[in-house]
Structure formats: C-alpha cells, structure tokens
Design goal:
Elements: H1 11-27, H2 33-60, H3 69-72, H4 76-107, E1 110-113, H5 120-134, E2 141-143, E3 157-165, E4 171-177, E5 186-192, E6 195-200, H6 201-207, H7 209-213, E7 218-230, H8 243-254, E8 261-267, H9 272-282, E9 291-293, H10 333-339, E10 342-346, H11 352-363, E11 367-374, H12 382-392, E12 396-401, H13 409-422, E13 425-427, E14 434-435, E15 439-446, E16 449-457, E17 469-476, H14 479-493, E18 504-507, H15 511-527, E19 533-538, H16 544-556, E20 559-564, E21 581-586, E22 591-592, E23 595-599, E24 606-610, H17 616-620, E25 622-629, H18 632-647, E26 652-654, H19 675-687
Parallel strand pairs: 1-6, 8-9, 11-12, 12-13, 14-25, 17-22, 19-20, 20-21
Antiparallel strand pairs: 2-4, 3-4, 3-7, 5-6, 7-8, 10-17, 11-15, 15-16, 16-17, 18-25, 19-23, 21-26, 23-24, 24-25
C-alpha cells in the first residue's frame, strides 16, 4: 500500500488528545480531590507550552500556505482552525470540571472566596494583608489610546481594570500584573470552626483596587483577568525538516527581543469595548483566535493549591525503595556495580542512589575522572554539588551542557558557569545537534587497572523531577558498554569522532538503522511463521518512517503493542494496515517518561532502554543513546514492568482511530489494576519487602458524580 494512503494523526491534534487525558484525571472521581485540582494546573501549563512552541511554529508556517503541508501535515490555516475548535471545547470542559471541584471542596468544608463574598472580619483580614504584603509588589500601568501598549510578559497574568475619574466621570483603563513570582497565588484566611477559607491573590487586588488608584482621583469599576502567550523564540522544531524555507521565516523572528503574541486569553465576561481595545493595542485580530475563559488564568499556579493539612485529599505518599544491591551504605556502591548491573526505576526507587554513587566517586581515592551530560538540572542540584565536590577533591570533571534545553537555558548556563569556576571542563553541546542523552562515565584506577562505570538512562539528572517522573537508569561496569559510552564522550570533545557502536544505539548515527532492522527482523520472522512481537513504551511516537515500518510489521502478522503516554501519530486498529497494533496511554499520579523497547528476536528477546522517543528530532537531530540490556535479571524486571503496565485497567486509555480516550476497564471477574501502584508493589517484592499498596484509591468524598455527569 502506498504511503499516500497510510493513516496518521496530526502531531498537534495528537498532543491535544494527550492533554485531554490529563483533563480526564481532573474529572476522575477516583482521583483524590486536591490531586484533581493539580491536574487542572498541569493541563493549563501543558496548554501554555503548546501555544508557546507548537502553535507558534504553525503560525510561522502561514506564509508558506500549501507548501507547509508536507512539513506539518496540513494547511496552516486549516490546522489553526482545528486547534482552536478543540481548544475551545477543552476550555469549556475545563470550566465545568473546575466548577464541579469547587462544589466538592464545599462538601469538604473548604471554601474559595472572591472579593464579593467576604464577611466583615474577612474583609479586615484581606485589607490588612493587602497593605502589609501585596501593595508593595504592585506596579500599575495606566493605559492611553495615544500611548504605545506596554509589553505584556509571557507566563504572567494581569488584571485589566476599567477606571472612572471621580470628577469628570471619564473612563480609562489600567493593567496590574498579579505578582505570583514574588507571592503565593493563594491567601489562606483564618478558619471558622471546621470551615477553611481561601482567596486568590487576584481577588485580594480586586477587593482593594480603589486604594491603588484613589491617589489619582480614580475609582476602579471592574477588573478582568487577561493573559498573553508569546512565541517562545526557539528554532523551529527539527521535526519540521525543510530547513531552506523555514530558516527564511525564523531568521527575522530570532532577532526580535520578545516573541510575537500567539494567544490572548481573557475572562469570558470581558466587555466588548475592553476586548476590542486590547486586540487593537496588542495588534491581534479575531482571526488570531482570542480565547474566552473563566475568571482566573495562569491556572498552573493551582499546582500549589493549599492542602490545609488535609492529607486524606491527596494521594498517599509511597516511601521510595532502596535497591537491594545498594541497601547497605557501608559498602562501596561502585563495587556493587562491579558485581552486577543495577537497574533503578524512579520514582519507585530512591534517586538518592544516583547522588550517592556520584558522591562516592567524588571522594574515592581511586576515581580519576567523571564525565556527564546535562540537559535539565534541578534548581538546587545535588548532582551539580557532587560534581563540585569531585573537583575540590582533585578529580577531573567534564560537563557536556545543552544550553538549548527548552525553558531551562538560564538554569543550565548558571550551573555551567558555576562548575567552570571550580575548574570543570565545559562542553556546550554539539553544533546543530541537541545533546539529549542521559550519560555519565566514572573512570577509576583500581590495582593499577583502568575500570569504568557507566550510567545510561531515560530521564534527566534531576532529583526533583525524579520524584514525579517514571524513568530508569542502568548502572554498569560492563567493559564493552563503557567503551562505547566513552566513545560518545569522545564525540562531544571532537565532533569528527563519531565512533562505532554495537552495545549502544546512538542517534543520529545508528539508532534509526538499529530499530528499523529490528522491526524488519520481526517481519521476517512472522513471514517465516516464527513467533514475532514488538512491545514499545515511550512518550511520543511521531516519526512517519518508523510508523510505516510498524504498519508493515502489522500487515505481516507481527503483534505490536504500544504504551505511548503523549503524542501518537500511528493509528491503531485499522483493517489491513494496523489491525495487529494495539495501544494504551497511562496518565496517573506520576508522569510516564521511561522508554523501553522489546523485540521477540526469534525467542531471544532484545530489550533496550533509551533517552529517545521515536520522533524525527530524536532520531536524526539530537544525540540520544539507547542501550541493549544484556543482564538477564534486569531484562526480566523491565519485561515484567511492561507486562504490569499492560495489565492496568483503571488509569489506561485505549489509543484508537477516533481519539476517544476511552478508559480501559476490567472485564469479567478481572481485578482492578492501577499500574503505577502495581509496579511499586512488584519492585518492593524484588527488594524482599512485603508491604504492598493494597488499595488502588482512597475515597475522599461520600458521594461523587461520574465524569460523564460533571
């Protein structure tokens, strides 16, 4: 069948379908109440980034017209229209869920007040708080038809205020940024009996707005929340591969000090005259799709919604597991790795093990050098501090820093400068190639012999995200693997030394070829009537060449099973094309981030973990590393984890042709399985601890509406 007729889901539409799954979690009554509020925040933050990067990219394509279709899969105008329609539907759903959650909070005697619902005592408290803490953080901007409109900051929320002069009765406007960078979005008022009260910072400002402008003889009449999203001003994503035309469009944009506006979100009750004033001043038209929303924006702040000590309204915290090989901290962790490969799976295993390995390396008299790749470090990074300690102890440290890690450029530059000051060798990535691999290599000299210890992982060296992202790390002293990891670091030092790899699959050199050959081998085995299957777990599946090979595998009878958390452009279950391909997406309390690929390989399974999704950018335009797992015990653990995830029937959605995001449910007498809890229990048993999580969920209110009725 010609590729022309093969089905694909547009990348942007597939992403919106993923974010809809996040929204489902906010509506799911089996999710604890305050966690549901956090899922609204995650949904909102995801959508903001989607506009900053993906919608901005589509808008850059507008001058190309039909010539953009091979680049983004649709005419830019048509795609923007489709995006807007789905966004508006999701926005309405978001507001419905939010209003429902407010009702549930009331059932739990938690009340979210606004400036009009304060009693006399609460008014005094709010006014006092405003004068003591808030007003010094406010810097109002008076607006004038004749003056240029101020540059609104991306990621910030503003109150757009209508003013009236007390003497002349003339109307005017002002802007006040809600100062969430320096203050909490939430102010907890004193309890009254068993009732708790919260007011948003926005409404504190609304309540006291007259006091801001009274000195100018102005009265504040109305205040509406608005928010502007800007083009993130990064290079167009490398999945858009026709550079010749794209560079002409982006060249001028990169010279701009601030990104162009791509979205205006406003309170749906904003009067028409105020909206028209904004659109004119910001230089947006109704074609630029201003989006009506609710009373509050920047909902990402709700990730820090106060828990008020109500732990029963949150997911129970699971104690991180100590790996059985590392449980005894009086012995050398490096020597434990010498004995056998170690697989750490986060957040189930404690990330302290990685810190401890680096700390030991920083102090050990036999260790000579540490090399590491850095994509996203934590703000107060223990990893970086361990490397600084290594430098102070006379070790050589080489840091390969990717400065183009989206939205983390400033943080990475800070740590690069800090380590450079301490004497580290800093390599700022590779020209035209993002370094996204998750590697470190520790070199020691033990009894006169050179010994190396390698880390190949799926997630960043970030102890904060390791608490909420599922990832895995392989720690090994296997000589062949360590030699090839060393070759990758040689490439970072000298970009002409691309190296040869057998244990590793390294993009852009041999990763695409490696996985294509493995898929083709499954096709050959299926044609020879041998067992043939492929099980793939990743964040995103977008690359069409790889998808086409998977379609061919399905047509040959290869059983292909997908666990794709985010974007899936492959269409499952299409007769004569992908009828042997099934897929699920798991969205739950942890963000599924690890990449694991399993191939039947004629009965001798080949299993890989990887830093790379199957996207064009990962396979062709980044330096990514996958490693074949050769240790039988580690193979078994990974295989069992994927089997557990595929048995999940409470937080998994079926990936189907119509993007319905239907929950996978137990059939017959099948027990309920919450995959993430089941994986935790499995790893506990692997460690020899018998203390499983018995309850899938904890009910938080006596009576809840089902998602369909919200």
């Amino acid at each position: 069948m010609s590729n022309k007729y093969l089905p694909y889901v547009n990348r942007e539409i597939a992403w919106l379908s993923f974010n809809e799954r996040v929204l489902q979690e906010a509506a799911d009554p089996t999710t604890p109440l305050l966690e549901r509020m956090k899922f609204l925040a995650i949904f909102s933050n995801n959508r903001d980034e989607f506009y900053r990067v993906r919608v901005a990219t589509v808008k850059r394509m507008l001058p190309l017209g039909r010539r953009a279709i091979p680049l983004i899969g649709a005419h830019p105008n048509d795609l923007l229209d489709t995006i807007l329609k789905r966004v508006l539907v999701q926005q309405n759903r978001f507001e419905e869920i939010y209003q429902h959650l407010l009702k549930e909070l009331k059932q739990e005697k938690i009340f979210l007040l606004n400036e009009k619902s304060l009693n006399a005592d609460q008014q005094k408290t709010v006014r006092s708080f405003f004068h003591q803490k808030v007003i010094s953080n406010l810097f109002p901007i008076l607006l004038d038809e004749a003056k240029p409109f101020p540059s609104l900051r991306d990621k910030s929320s503003y109150l757009f205020i209508r003013l009236q002069a007390k003497e002349t009765k003339k109307f005017s406007y002002a802007l006040v940024e809600v100062p969430t960078k320096s203050m909490s979005r939430f102010f907890v008022l004193p309890k009254e009996g068993d009732k708790s009260y919260i007011i948003l910072l926005d409404d504190v400002i609304r309540f006291c707005a007259d006091e801001i402008f009274s000195v100018l003889g102005l009265t504040a009449l109305d205040a509406y929340n608005i928010k502007l999203t800007r083009d993130a001003e990064l290079d167009i994503d490398n999945d858009v591969v026709s550079h010749s035309m794209v560079e002409k469009i982006s060249k001028g944009l990169k010279q701009r000090k601030k990104g162009l506006p791509v979205r205006l979100v406003f309170d749906g009750s904003l009067p028409e005259d105020m909206k028209n004033f904004l659109l004119k001043k910001i230089n947006l038209t109704k074609k630029d799709a201003p989006i009506p929303g609710g009373r509050y924006h920047n909902f990402k702040d709700f990730i820090a919604f106060p828990d008020l000590g109500r732990k029963e309204l949150l997911n129970p915290k699971l104690k991180p597991i100590e790996h059985k090989l590392f449980a005894n901290y009086h012995t050398s962790l490096l020597q434990a790795i010498r004995k056998e490969d170690v697989l750490l799976v986060y957040p189930y295993h404690t990330y302290d093990h990685i810190i401890s390995v680096l700390r030991e390396a920083s102090m050990s008299p036999v260790v000579e050098e540490i090399k590491i790749t850095v994509y996203r470090l934590a703000d107060s990074s223990k990893v970086a501090n361990a490397l600084i300690n290594a430098l102070k102890n006379g070790k050589k440290v080489t840091l390969v820093v990717e400065l183009q890690a989206r939205f983390d450029e400033e943080n990475n530059l800070y740590w690069a400068n800090k380590l450079h000051e301490e004497g580290a060798t800093i390599i700022y990535g590779v020209p035209n190639l993002k370094v996204h691999s998750k590697l470190f290599l520790i070199t020691a000299r033990e009894n006169g012999k050179l010994v190396e210890y390698a880390h190949i992982g799926t997630g960043n060296f970030n102890e904060k995200t390791a608490k909420i992202y599922t990832d895995c790390s392989l720690l090994t002293s296997d000589k062949k693997t360590c030699v090839e990891v060393s070759r990758v670091f040689d490439f970072f030092t000298d970009n002409f030394k691309t190296g040869h790899y057998k244990q590793l699959a390294v993009s852009p050199f041999n990763m695409r070829r490696t996985f294509t050959q493995l898929i083709n081998k499954e096709i050959a085995n299926a044609n020879a009537k041998k067992p043939a299957y492929i099980t793939l777990k990743m964040n995103n599946l977008v690359d069409r060449k790889i998808i086409n090979h998977l379609y061919k595998a399905s047509q040959a009878g290869v059983k292909v099973t997908l666990i794709v958390r985010g974007i899936c452009s492959l269409v499952c279950g299409v007769r004569e094309i992908s009828e042997n391909i099934t897929g699920v997406s798991i969205v739950d309390k942890y963000l599924e981030h690890m990449r694991v690929f399993i191939f039947a390989n004629g009965g001798d399974e080949k299993i890989f973990i990887s830093s790379a999704d199957w996207m064009t950018r990962n396979l062709d335009h980044r330096c990514e590393v996958a490693v074949q797992i050769r240790d039988k015990n580690v193979q078994s653990i990974l295989s069992n984890i994927l089997a557990i995830q595929l048995s999940g029937n409470t937080k998994a959605r079926i990936l189907d042709q119509h993007l319905t995001n239907t929950y996978k449910k137990p059939t017959g007498n099948e027990p309920k399985v919450r995959a993430q809890d089941a994986v935790y229990n499995y790893l506990l048993k692997e460690t020899g601890v018998v203390n499983p999580v018995k309850k899938m969920v904890k009910k938080t209110v006596k009576k809840k509406l089902t998602p369909a009725k919200i």
